[in-house]
């Protein structure tokens, strides 16, 4: 079945826009080291592992981490911690029956309930002495605090992180603070904006990929930043994004014609 799905994606185009696929395209098929913070069930790092990469997969939610532990890989090091500014604390992780993807250190959704106690660590502690080629962060509101614990004296080639003011304004920052942080560290940044979320756990609708700085089309928009180290890499990412957008429209038209 997975082979059939893969073939359909190649022929018809993707079901959803995928910022990780853009990063994968920019980085190329070469071995490297990826840090996946908020690894969930491993969807983001799987294509990199298949290309020979090593991965540090940070996932504090034991329900999600079980999927990684049940399919161990010698090049994937699973870290059962949450990233914060302080090593060795114990904090409450909030989980939701609505979506496995919104486990967070903050309860931002009515479905959140107190879950497991998790140990914390800083990124610079976990990756000390290792060169990171790709840093992906998706921590349901805590992306900027996570990035602030990284050692930016060694810059990853690509950084992908999530923004959503609904989650982050209560934590004291906006999408602009996150985008400006990346720009301030010398990155060329692209903003992948999605339409406002109707409900977590359901399919979301992608809107556009544009150079940052940029205003959101709607104030409750959300999405991901793709940060790269050079204008050439940004141009490569934009080209890949345009191709993906066209294929996404083709897929949508075909699915509509087929009554999906």
UniProtKB/TrEMBL annotation:
Record key words, sorted: Methyltransferase, Transferase
GO molecular function: methyltransferase activity
Keyword Methyltransferase included in the entry's annotation: yes
Keyword hit for Methyltransferase: yes
GO BP annotation list: methylation
Domain called Methyltransferase FkbM: residue spans: 36-187
PANTHER family xrefs: METHYLTRANSFERASE, FKBM FAMILY PROTEIN, SLL1173 PROTEIN
NCBIfam families linked: fkbM_fam
Name listed for the protein in its UniProt record: Methyltransferase, FkbM family
């Amino acid at each position: 079945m997975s082979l059939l799905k893969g073939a359909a994606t190649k022929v018809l185009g993707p079901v959803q826009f995928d910022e990780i696929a853009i990063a994968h395209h920019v980085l190329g098929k070469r071995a490297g080291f990826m840090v996946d913070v908020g690894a969930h069930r491993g969807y983001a790092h799987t294509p990199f592992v298949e290309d020979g990469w090593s991965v540090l997969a940070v996932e504090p939610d034991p329900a999600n981490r079980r999927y990684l532990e049940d399919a161990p890989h010698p090049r994937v090091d699973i870290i059962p911690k949450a990233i914060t500014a302080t090593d060795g604390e114990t904090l409450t992780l909030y989980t939701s029956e609505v979506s496995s993807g919104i486990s967070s250190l903050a309860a931002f959704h009515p479905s959140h309930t107190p879950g497991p106690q998790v140990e914390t660590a800083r990124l610079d502690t976990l990756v000390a002495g290792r060169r990171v080629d790709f840093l992906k962060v998706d921590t349901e509101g805590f992306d900027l605090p996570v990035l602030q614990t990284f050692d930016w004296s060694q810059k990853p080639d690509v950084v992908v992180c999530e923004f959503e003011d609904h989650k982050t304004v209560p934590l004291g920052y906006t999408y602009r603070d996150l985008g400006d942080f990346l720009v301030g560290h010398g990155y060329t940044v692209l903003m992948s904006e999605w339409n406002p979320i109707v409900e977590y756990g359901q399919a979301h609708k992608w809107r556009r990929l544009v150079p940052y700085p940029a205003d959101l089309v709607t104030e409750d928009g959300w999405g991901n930043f793709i940060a790269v180290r050079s204008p050439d890499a940004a141009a490569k990412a934009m080209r890949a994004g345009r191709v993906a957008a066209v294929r996404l429209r083709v897929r949508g038209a075909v699915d509509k014609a087929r009554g999906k």
